[in-house]
Amino acid sequence: xxxxxxxxxxxxxxxxxxxxxxxxxxxxxxxxxxxxxxxxxxxxxxxxxxxxxx
Length: 54
Fold this sequence. Notes:
By secondary structure, the protein is mainly alpha-helical. It is built from 2 helices and no strands.
């Protein structure tokens, strides 16, 4: 479950990075959105791990 969550988040991140807008502002916003998505996925996995080890 945790591996699937992280793999899915990474695949989405790679896609989003591949289709970043050409303009600088749009690219920066896209990169920050990807970072936020990855951070959220890591937090979900941490919660899954805590629940599993409890």
